[in-house]
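Researcher: Dear colleague, please comment on this protein.
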Amino acid sequence: MFFGTFVVMEIVADDLESYLEHTTDDENSLLKRVNRETYLKETMPHMLSGHYQGRVLSLLSKLVAPKRILEIGTFTGYATLCLAEGLQQDGILHTIDINEEQQERVQGYFDASEFADKIRYHIGDAAEIIPTLNETFDLVFIDADKKRNLYYFETIINQVPSGGLILIDNVLWKGKVLDSKPDNQTKQIIDLNARLAQDKRVEKVILPIRDGLFALRKK
């Protein structure tokens, strides 16, 4: 019975995602290419933000109209390109990823976009790279090593001005945050959410988009 219920929930979720995608703006041709090639070439393509979340990221970026964006965790660059859509004319987006094997292909996507001169693609450990960026960030998207999410938040919070927006992905962890006996990785996410919920420096809300998107506005 439980298995049958789970299957039905999965079907409903897939139908809902399809409905959401069909009621939002379409992807441009480059984003469709990134999406398609990610699913063809990557072993964990589900890490891609995808059409619906990508439009959410784009809209939030346009609302903030950032001059500087920091993205921690580039993957194949889909979210990067979506966030870049909201940049001011002279804006810059710094994106950091540890995987150098993807560098040539992802850089190719950036070079093919209208934001080629606005995206600074860094390969290496974000913990080492962030301190070298002498910037103030109006928008930050954290989507990397989940064990370090709190560290990344505490590292960049003082580089975000009042009114700046910090987004943290995967904070619902496939619903495991509701487990009565969570595993260690889930416990880390539960702890992160609890700490952020009590943080007086930010206004916050979790958006139940895909795997959960924590939106935090610096006071």
